[in-house]
Write a structure and sequence with these properties.
Blueprint (H helix, E strand, L loop, with lengths): L1 E5 L3 H7 L8 E6 L3 H10 L3 E3 L2 H7 L4 E4 L6 H10 L3 E4 L7 H14 L3 E3 L7 H11 L6 E9 L3 H4 L4 H24 L2 E10 L15 E8 L4 E7 L12 E5 L2 E5 L12 E5 L5 E2 L13 H11 L6 H22 L3 E2 L50 E2 L3 E2 L2 E2 L3 H10 L3 E3 L7 H9 L10 E6 L7 H12 L6 E4 L19 H8 L15 H13 L6 E4 L3 H10 L6 E5 L7 H9 L3 E5 L11 H9 L4 H11 L2 E3 L6 H8 L8 H8 L9
Parallel strand pairs: 1-2, 1-4, 2-3, 4-5, 5-6, 7-10, 16-19, 19-20, 20-21, 21-22, 22-23, 23-24, 24-25
Antiparallel strand pairs: 7-11, 8-9, 8-15, 9-10, 11-12, 12-13, 13-14, 17-18
Amino acid sequence: MECAFVGAGSVARRYASGIDGSRLELTAVCDLDVDRARDLANRHDAAAYKDLDAMLADVGAPLVVNLTSHGSHASVSRRALRADRHVFSEKPLALDAERAADLVATAERRGLALGCAPINHRCDAQRHVRRLLGDGRLGPVRLGYAHAHVGRVTEWHDDPESFLAVGPLYDGAVYPLNCLVSWFGPIERVRVADGFAPWPDRETETPERDSHVEATLEFRSGPTVRLTASLYAPHRSREFNSLELHGDDGSIYLADSGALAADADTVRVGGNGRDYVDAPHPAPRRERRYVDGPARVAAAVASGRRPVESARRSAHVVAVCNAVESAAADGAPVAVDAHGVPAPDLSPPPVRPHRDGRKTGRGGTAGGAGDGASRGAAVRLPPVGFGCSRYRDGEYVDRVDSIATALDAGYRLLDSAELYGNEGRIGDLLDAPGSPDREGLFLVSKVWNTNHERVAEACEGTLEALGVDALDCYMLHWPTAWEYQGPLRDLADRPPAEQEALTFPTGDDGEPATVDASLTETWARLEHVHERGLARTIGVCNVGVDRLERIAATADVLPAVVQVESHPYLPRRELVEWCHERGIRVVAHSPLSAPGLLDEPVLREIAADRDAAPAQVALAWQVERGVVPIPSSNDPEHIVENLGAARVELSAVDRERVATLADPDFER
């Protein structure tokens, strides 16, 4: 779509830098400084104008991108709308709530689209926060702190006059406010506000409004947020554009509410009473461009829509800023007009397609109970899961703290088993305040070898221990059947020798005490568990293609998930290909535990190139090929690092280099 820029300053250059490759074509640039307009226009083979009315008369571009100074936004947008042009405006939409509301009404009356920056609520870090808010992890959010430290614009901006004229609210506070309103809905009133004017004596240019403002804001949906906006606090100070939200069950920290990309440590989560841990966004770093805002408006118009939602929210934000100024001046609370901003919807954003075309993300509803794992329809899984086995470095260890850390960091696939003996403890953790809602988790468990003839009994015991009605996937741990030793409940509470006797029974010859229960018979019992609704999907572990073909030959329900040991030494290519052809997801256990793997020069060299750790490269290699690794660790730093592997994007050359590590003679 053709578009015209009004304003050719520094922000216009940022928008223009993303034009190539977007759905927009810049055909005209207008600026009161015609030389500046020509400079930008010449770079894009566009026409240059000094007079807005002349440009609107000469140029038929259906979209005007308003990049003028803060105080000119409203008048320029109004003229463009009256010329029947769609408009995308830099923030703020206006400096007065009534003028902002009038712009929205004009657009609606004329059937035009009206959008407004910032687009930060659509960026990855902010969407990740919304997802974490939506899965119930924090409980009811009641308190927050928002900062907008614009900084001393005379020191970092080449044209500070506009900033000094409007103060920190209309330029800086709009970033956290836009996020908060998009998450929690409208602000109902300003409880209290104060403003004053700290400024260095050495400066010759001074703010026309208070340079530092603080206010307490009440949201209609419940939270109360303290807002601090400042031109005096240095640009990029410690809090800068930070947001911190506190709920009954936990807290979340967003380092930069205006971030166009999500770095690994941009979002942090702390369970109630626990230290904050990084919660990395589960996808490679993707930076939004300034031009994405108007490009989104253009896409909507091309599809026949005329959206004004972002403008309506911007009008509400302007009303909040007006109310803060009034409350500071009058020393009394001020009510805020919602301007049609809807009630909050904290459901997580849609799942993003995986790099190989599969769906990843929250998998709590992998398919309704009884639906089966339909052939060719892959179940949705997060890109990286968390292994809950207690067996670490030759001994049994407690995993509750590490699993709690994993949930804080953002893991949403927990891989458990009755053999691990700690499902009751995991259930207590999931039932405690601060755990994600059940719908936000993909829970896996596995029936042990001694229970092949009592699959339903074992599954019921697991469900009771975990405190859930159904598993997302119930799996056969190993294909070999051993003698029944009774229910395997609370193994973690028993002495190690007793655990071993119950789970690894032996005959008089010292060999495993087996029973005659075929793999197809046991799979039929798993299918019955699925039919009863105790497991939404079923799967099998530690098998090869030969056994999978045996299951598939007689199964009414194909495995939805196959879990095998896999790492760069043991890629299991044939099995992965066989499964993916049939829509079966592959999960890789022990993805990092092969001796010597993390010391491989290939992994270390790629890690250095990608600013990653060797473990992250090994895990990212699995993610890139559509396999879900489930690393296990008790080290908080490693837990976060492993989850962050989903952010590491490998090149085709990187993947080929990792593939050279495959060892056909590898034995664990």
